[in-house]
């Protein structure tokens, strides 16, 4: 049996309208976030949502790499790696630094790497 408080919609959660009312022992609601922040976080997670992009982030966690290093490590074509790097760069996940004829890509910071590492670890735990 479902009550109104149990049937919280995704829109209610995103807008912060879900308060947990009706549950006397519920903890206080978490602070709400600005909708623009939530939208940007969703964009960021979508940028990480492709298996090749996850693999790229894991490779860059070790150290900076150029496109051909990523091609060799991941076994996918150069155009595909370049396309995924463009998405990650546009989302602010990676940055490129020109070194002669090559561009070395690295993670902007470790926050996003933690998200990817934790997601992969979670799936690996569930699969065992």
Describe the protein's architecture and organization:
The protein contains six helices and two strands. Helix 3 (51-62) packs across helix 6. The chain has helices at residues 10-15, 35-47, 51-62, 67-74, 78-90, 110-127, and strands spanning 94-99, 102-107. The longest helix is centred in the last third of the chain and has 18 residues, at 110-127. The chain has a two-stranded antiparallel sheet with strand order 1-2. Strand 1 (94-99) and strand 2 form a beta hairpin. The protein starts with 9 loop residues before the first helix and ends with a helix. The protein has 128 residues and is mainly alpha-helical.
Output the keywords:
2 strands, 9% strand, 128 residues, single chain, disordered N terminus, mainly alpha, 55% helix, elongated
List the helices and strands and how they pair.
Elements: H1 10-15, H2 35-47, H3 51-62, H4 67-74, H5 78-90, E1 94-99, E2 102-107, H6 110-127
Antiparallel strand pairs: 1-2
Largest sheet features: 2 strands, antiparallel
What's the overall geometry? elongated
Oligomer: single chain
**What's the total number of strands?**
2
What is shown here, in short?
This protein has helices at residues 10-15, 35-47, 51-62, 67-74, 78-90, 110-127, and strands at residues 94-99, 102-107. The chain is mainly alpha-helical and 128 residues long.
